[in-house]
Amino acid sequence: METIHKESQKQIGQYVADDFRTAAVFAKYKIDFCCNGNRSVEEACEKKDIDSNTVLEELETVLNSNTDQSIDYKSWPLDLLAEYIEKKHHRYVEEKIPVLRQFLDKLCKVHGERHPELFKINELFSSSAGELASHMKKEELILFPFVKKMVKAKLEAGSILSPQFGTVENPIAMMMHEHDTEGERFRQIAELTNDYNPPADACNTYKVTFAMLNEFEKDLHLHIHLENNILFPEAIKLEQQFN
Predict the structure, then answer these.
(1) Model pTM?
(2) From residue 243, how far is each of 77, 156, 172, 237 by CA, in Å?
(3) Do 179 and 34 form a contact (C-beta atoms < 8 A)?
(4) Of 180, 176, 181, residue with least CA distance to 143
(5) DSSP 3-state assignment of 43?
């Protein structure tokens, strides 16, 4: 029983950082592992009135099952992880936004009268699209190049000049705040779409749009997790080695 109690105090973000497969368990119980990953399993379960032992047993099952699909992002060098986030997740966002915008505009015109919630969904997604574009540029032009510079300096046993932003913790705090905002927006979108379940009278575009929004949110969760729970804390630790 003591082991279970000890594990129940382990932070959710830590579980997912150690093995991303655990994200599926948290998603099942609607426990946010990306923006609110800094809570214990016990705390999150108590808030949602869920038996923490049930969740812990499911987590245990996932952790004890072996699969080649489990990617150990935590073992990657930081410059590789930053590059991966940019090439995989940033590109995904850039590719999907125009398509989703077009579909959502169409849905509002065709189905908006019968389903007025579509206008709010469109407004939320549009705000998210604009914010994400600016957010990713800040990472690509300011934060990621500095992370790569630190990795290079460490490999070459060199030193780094203090960046204009003072310490890496400053842009990281801003990025994490922006992650929280997007997480909240998508919580609202999930609610308005009835967890991405289209209504009975939905046409194919309607169904495809909701499926795409669902996929977009899942990708965003992994994207935020890789930054909040792995890249950012490791970048802070790396910077401290130079001081």
Answers:
(1) 0.79
(2) 20, 16, 18, 10
(3) yes
(4) 176
(5) helix
